[in-house]
Amino acid sequence: MSFAYALACRECGREYGLEPIFSCDFCFGPLEVSYDYDLIKDTMNVASIEAGPPTIWRYSPLLPVDPQYKVDIGTGYTPLIRADRLARAIGIDTLWIKNDTVNPTWSFKDRVVSMAIGKAREFGFEAMACASTGNLANSIAAHSAAAGMDCFVFIPDDLETGKVVGSGVYHPTLVTIDGSYDDVNRVCTELSYQRPWAFVNINVRPYYAEGSKTLAFETAEQLEWRAPDRVVAPMASGSLFTKIWKGFQELEKIGLIQNPTTKMSGAQAQGCSPIATAYEAGSMNFVPQKPDTIARSLAIGNPADGYYALKTMEQTGGGAAMASDVEILEAIQLLAETEGIFAETAGGVTVACLKKLVEQGAISKNEETVAYITGAGLKTIEAVSSEIRQPIHIQPKVEEFDAALEAYN
Amino acid sequence: MASKQVRLTFDGDEVTRPLIYEMGHEFDIVTNIRMADVDKDTGWVVLEIVGQEEEIEKCLIWVQSHGVRVDDATLGDVIEG
């Protein structure tokens, strides 16, 4: 069962029932799910978690979905890999990679969509919808297919082929929008007011966002029930970043970890960096930007949780950094060459910012650090295809191979 | 009468200009500040505007023409990665 009992405004604290709503009537602040932690403490412990499935659903009591409505396509419990070669390359002692590229649709979005679709079924919605630059579209299309629900996916018309095919194969109603980034936002916001659909990041957003907490739950469990010294995670809307911190705090509330002192560092692409820019200016007010970056999965110019991400940095003593497109591509290569993990551009942003923060001394050498790699590289092949070394081409003769290899090296 | 909730983001010179006061004088609308955070260089105001729909739209076009960004008050960007 779920121990969620209310939605509460993050600004004024006003409480609402568990309904498909997302903002406070009084102050328009965002709503967040509240849980009865005393009851959870009585039912959830290390043994109960270990007896659960090897997916995000092993943490069901801390999630907002009644398990009878869940759609489980095997999301979560992804590997936490000790990344010694990458650690050496960037000059840090202990580095872990949370490899979320191995989820069912190859990104962390499966975690949040699992919450959105479960809650949508509970509320009786018959159709799911979203506006996406790719990963969210792939995940919502797959989950809707598995649940037998209608699905409407709105994407920009210049999206990478891998991301279009990765949604289309599940047979949703796929709509490409001819217009600017702002046009896509405007059309989808208007549709969300008119159509009786569960828009994953609008009317079921408070539940959807909760899925990202499982990244913290898994990390703590895989570190044998403790939180790391430092987290480096990508920031788009800022939701994933704030929910990782909420996840560690919840584990402390129910007594599974002690006093987490994790410093939270956020990573953004320079071409869309409203949160990191505000952090560097020492301001809690971000200025929305028009995105211009290869890291399209992080291209949110007006981040709904930007303020809360800045607050999380302030509370934890963390910070932020930003990476140029060139640095992002170099970091994708570095991660692949040192750890055998092919990340999409968002992963490049995370590794590039981690490297930068270590070089700047913002992360010290002896901090145990976890970097979150949230999507697989095959989704954004276009971004890196011109960067990789061309293969050796030979006629089918051994002597040609010997000569070509010498020239290649 | 219609009601619209918007988030106005100010940057640069607009921070010090009394634009919300001017909106109330230029257009037949009532403004109600619900949340705000303004510092010396930047700031945002969540504003409820009540009036005829056409008048609200004209008012929002006017304020944008003065370099103020206007967004839905509660959502931020709805497109995600």
Number of strands of chain A: 13
User: Which CATH class of chain B applies here?
Assistant: Alpha Beta
- What's the rounded overall pLDDT mean of chain A? 95
How would you spell out the order of helices and strands of chain B?
EHEEHEE
Helix content of chain B: 25-40%
The CATH architecture designation of the largest domain in chain A is: 3-Layer(aba) Sandwich
Query: Which fold does the CATH topology of the largest domain in chain A refer to?
Result: Rossmann fold
| Multimeric state | heterodimer
Q: Please give the CATH class of the largest domain in chain A.
A: Alpha Beta
Number of domains of chain B: 1
Report the largest inter-chain contact.
A-B, 47 and 25 residues
Can you name the CATH architecture of chain B?
2-Layer Sandwich
CATH fold-level name of chain B: Alpha-Beta Plaits
Helix content of chain A: 25-40%
Low-pLDDT sequence parts of chain A = none
Following the backbone from N to C, one meets helices and strands of chain A in this order, namely: EEEHHEHEHEHEHEHEHHEHEHHEHHEHH
Give a brief rundown of this model.
The complex is a heterodimer of chains A (409) and B (81). Chain A is α/β, with parallel strands linked by helices and 409 residues long.
Describe this structure in words.
The complex is a heterodimer of chains A (409) and B (81). Chain A has 409 residues and is an alpha/beta fold. In chain A, 40% of the residues lie in helices and 15% in strands. Chain A has 16 helices and 13 strands. A 6-stranded mixed sheet of chain A has the order 4-5-13-10-11-12, sandwiched between helices. In chain A, helix 9 packs across helix 10 (239-253). Chain B has a 4-stranded antiparallel sheet. Chain B is an alpha+beta fold and 81 residues long. Chain B is 26% helix and 44% strand. The N and C termini of chain B lie far apart (37 Å). Chain B has helices at residues 19-26, 53-65; strands spanning 2-11, 29-38, 42-51, 69-72, 79-80. Chain B is globular. Chain A binds chain B through residues 11, 22-23, 27-30, 109, 130-136, 154, 156, 181, 184-185, 188-189, 192, 199, 201-202, 236-237, 281, 283-285, 287-288, 296-306, 346, 375, and chain B through 5, 9, 11, 34-35, 37-39, 41-44, 46, 69, 71-81.
